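Checklist before submission:
- one chain only
- standard amino acids only
- sequence pasted in full

Submission:
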Amino acid sequence: MSAELNGLASLTDSLFSAIRKGREGFVPSLESREIGIVIRVSTGIAIVSGLPGVGYDELVSFPNGLMGIAFNVDEGEVGVVLLGAQAGLRAGDEVTRTRRVTDIAVGDCLLGRIIDPLGRPIDGLGPFPADSARRSVERAAPSIMDRAPVEVPLQTGIKIVDAIIPIGRGQRELILGDRQIGKTAIAIDSILNQKDKNVLCVYCAIGQRASSVAKVIAKLRESRALEYTVVVVSEGNDPPGLAYITPYAATSVAEYFMEAGRDVLIIYDDLTNHARSYRELSLLLRRPPGREAFPGDIFYIHSRMLERSTHLSKERGGGSLTALPIIETEAQDISAYIPTNLISITDGQIYLSPTLFELGILPAIDVGKSVSRVGGAAQCPIYRSISGDLKLAYSQFEELESFARFGTRLDKNTKRIIDHGQRIRICLKQPESKPVALPEQIVLLLALAAKLFEAVPIENVAQAEQALRLAAKHLEEGLAARLIVDDRLNDSDRNVLLELAERALASFRSLPTDISKAPEPKHMEITASSKANASGCGSSPSKSAMTET
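Returned file contents:
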């Protein structure tokens, strides 16, 4: 018994000894914390007081894990943009500073994944590694000295874009048009065409319907394009704060790959929803409205984002970030506030016409209103030499076609221009999700430039174009490689391509190959009686019913 008491006494002495030593070595640390109070809550925002040291764009934390961004930093209160559902937030709740800005996970682990603007996976494939790198959502654009000229083409696989409105790696090309006429289809086809071209892609859906985003993801997965693509999504029912930060978060993800020396393509679908969400936040925060109720800095929020797309110099790794922002026009009004802002920011625009869409001319790109201010210098030299006169010929055709609709009697030269333009239009038509390889495009444009399609009846041109592309798929590998890398098309290669085109089109011809040697058909003015006689109803046409011109 005494032994047990002695053991307990020694244990007690050792415990008290440890407590005394710990007390002597203990140094209390003081940490200041700023805790604010929610004054009122509105749709997507909260007004907070009691955070005197909070900075602009700083993250603040609400109860239940809800986060927000300090957006209006006034003397007596702070306007906070909420980044989640506000259902459980009430006036009087506490708010604490996090002393950091909004950031997002970046890295190769994001390829093939679908995430929200805060970097959280929403595809059910599990979380990202805990040691993943993170980057702030808002970052400064590269300086002028860190940039290099746009010299490498970005092939979209869309014939009319690559030939007439080319895009270079590091360029910003705007896609605009009314709703539901194929804007997203052009962007998705551009992603599909980057397969095996060492170009990574980021698709940014801003305020889109969940069904629309699901269709895009299904198409990317079906074409195995999701393997080299990151999808950043904010849905239409998400808070406006999430829609606002979505394109900035997607740009940070793309910048990681660009700064690693890789080429990246980013799609913003679409910035009209982004501008509307920012307008909603600004009006709720009592910022003064300007034109069309948009705040005065709406130009700046888009320009500071799109300026991050560029081609870096070799000293910075030589990577590039090509941006294809999409916006929606109303009633074909490209002079509205947001379209004119983005046209002035970007390096060109692709305009889709509802009139062409209704006529079944797809993609419905209006060549007259579309332009690329950079991409022509980045085209493959052979491609540029062949397609140089194509836009002029197509524009002349569209101008003359509008006059021909009035029943104007056309001279021989005008009729040739219209016939040639009609064949160009048919050859540039293209179904959705069917990108065309560069060698096939070169063979097709060479045949158009040599006017080999002139001998093909207009109703057979589409089939002839398909046959020519099929023949071009079996080009010799060496020749196909030379078409991409060589500075000029030598005579032997040109003759090989022309012979291939003539063989492919031979079965569709009904006229001599050389259109200049073909006999000129006589233009006839046919009356109703002559039409009836031609169909076998009546006697032979009289001289008065048919007049030679």
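Reviewer check: Residues 409 and 523 are 9 Å apart (CA to CA).
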